[in-house]
């Protein structure tokens, strides 16, 4: 038993087979690709709750006598919520591709084809690290977007956050996993100098000369609404971060010391590579036919929002590698604001498309009927504290004190 990839003889001698050692991590790889799917699923739950509540909750009005403004219409709410919605879709498409890659590797292994083991190890490690970190932070952000009601257990968000947070650690600490992806990128660049062309998710590194010399040609904000332009930006950023990190590491006399000395740069390069993988799978999904009128257009908008929100968040890296100028970053931010106004009319439909039942969400804030305050009131009465009008000890301790306070001093 359990001797598929290794053998122990009757004399107790351990004999290793010809099978690559990476296959021993098969169970962990299987778990990680499931974790990536779970990340998209859990983030979609949090985003659904926050979006529906934001559509119901009203606060302040610019005109007297009119209904207060839905908080979903405030630009600050949109800047925090809509990128998370786009990220959810991006993670779902990346998870679909990850399942396909895993099944493809299993078929190859049956034919003793181990050529894609490095690829799937790097992809599952990197995407597990990226998706779980973003999802954990995203769930917490959704709680904040619900204001004080987000703290309530009946909102469904505290329990979701507490249950999901360990995903950042189990099956591999995220920073450790990103360092492994960084090693994969450095090894790919090292093989490239030996004439070996990269394949799979790192295939773009084969065009390292162009990516490290040519800069963005974005002139107008509308230029950002081109998946080719966005992919070039992500590839250039990842290639430049990876090549610069490789140069620093390989200059060290001891490579292991170099990897530790420049671990931060390694993690940044790995994260950039993983974000590129997610974006590339989103753009590939756009090439497929989408059933329903206008659906594909909405997916395109979400793809642009995801890419531009990453550029906005990591603008420092795009500027540091000299691929983008300050003006181009400004145009990206301006275009992002325009995209939010286009997504706003259909945002509820986009979260309803996740098809989460009220039972699954377990949230008085994210209920499908939008009757938030009725559901909140019902949940409040379920608390044992509210089963009686007054506390049991009110008559004995509190009421006498109040009577003394009410006695006139005149």
How would you characterize the overall build of this protein?
By secondary structure, this protein is mostly helical. The protein has helices spanning 26-56, 75-110, 117-145, 157-164, 174-193, 208-213, 227-251, 255-261, 263-286, 295-313, 315-320, 326-343, 347-352, 358-361, 372-381, 394-406, and strands at residues 6-8, 14-16. The protein has a two-stranded antiparallel ribbon. A hairpin with a 5-residue loop joins strand 1 and strand 2 (14-16). Helix 9 (263-286) packs antiparallel against helix 10 (295-313). The protein is globular, with a radius of gyration of 26 Å. The mean pLDDT is 90.
Topology:
Layout (H helix, E strand, L loop, with lengths): L5 E3 L5 E3 L9 H31 L18 H36 L6 H29 L11 H8 L9 H20 L14 H6 L13 H25 L3 H7 L1 H24 L8 H19 L1 H6 L5 H18 L3 H6 L5 H4 L10 H10 L12 H13 L4
Antiparallel strand pairs: 1-2
Helix pairs in contact: 1-2, 1-3, 2-3, 2-9, 2-10, 3-4, 3-5, 3-9, 5-7, 5-9, 7-8, 7-9, 9-10, 10-12
Q: What characteristics describe this protein?
A:
mainly alpha, globular, two-stranded antiparallel sheet
The strand order across the widest sheet is 1-2
Structural class: mainly alpha
How many strand units?
A: 2
Anisotropy-based shape: globular
Question: Which parts are unreliable, with pLDDT below 50 for 5 consecutive residues or more?
Answer: none
The Cα radius of gyration reads 26 Å
Strand content: under 5%
């Amino acid at each position: 038993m359990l001797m598929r990839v290794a053998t122990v003889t009757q004399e107790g001698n351990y004999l290793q087979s010809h099978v690559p050692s990476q296959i021993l991590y098969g169970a962990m790889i299987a778990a990680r690709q499931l974790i990536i799917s779970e990340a998209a699923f859990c983030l979609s739950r949090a985003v659904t709750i926050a979006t529906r509540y934001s559509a119901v909750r009203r606060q302040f009005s610019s005109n007297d006598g009119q209904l207060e403004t839905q908080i979903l219409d405030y630009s600050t709410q949109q800047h925090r919520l809509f990128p998370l919605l786009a990220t959810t879709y991006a993670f779902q498409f990346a998870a679909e591709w990850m399942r396909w890659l895993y099944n493809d590797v299993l078929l190859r292994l049956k034919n003793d084809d181990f050529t894609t083991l490095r690829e799937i190890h790097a992809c599952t490690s990197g995407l597990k690290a990226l998706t779980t970190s973003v999802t954990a932070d995203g769930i917490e952000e959704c709680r904040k977007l619900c204001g004080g009601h987000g703290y309530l257990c009946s909102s469904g968000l505290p329990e979701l956050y507490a249950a999901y947070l360990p995903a950042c650690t189990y099956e591999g600490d995220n920073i450790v996993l990103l360092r492994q992806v960084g090693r994969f990128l450095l090894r790919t660049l090292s093989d490239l100098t030996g004439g070996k062309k990269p394949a799979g998710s790192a295939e773009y590194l084969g065009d390292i000369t162009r990516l490290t010399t040519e800069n963005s040609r974005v002139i107008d904000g509308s230029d950002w609404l081109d998946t080719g332009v966005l992919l070039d930006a992500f590839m250039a950023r990842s290639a430049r971060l990876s090549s610069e990190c490789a140069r620093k590491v390989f200059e060290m006399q001891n490579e292991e010391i170099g990897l530790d000395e420049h671990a931060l740069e390694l993690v940044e390069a790995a994260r950039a590579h993983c974000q590129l993988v997610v974006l590339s799978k989103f753009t590939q999904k756009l090439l497929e036919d989408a059933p329903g009128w206008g659906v594909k257009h909405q997916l395109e908008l979400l793809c642009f929002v995801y890419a531009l929100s990453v550029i906005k968040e990591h603008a420092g890296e795009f500027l540091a590698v000299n691929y983008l100028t300050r003006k181009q970053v400004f145009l990206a931010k301006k275009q992002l604001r325009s995209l939010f106004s286009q997504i706003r009319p259909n945002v509820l439909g986009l979260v309803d498309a996740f098809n989460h039942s009220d039972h699954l969400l377990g949230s008085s804030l994210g209920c499908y009927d939008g009757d938030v305050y009725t559901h909140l009131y019902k949940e409040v009465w379920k608390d044992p504290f509210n089963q009686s009008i007054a506390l049991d000890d009110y008559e004995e301790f509190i009421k006498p004190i109040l009577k003394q306070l009410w006695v006139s001093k005149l």
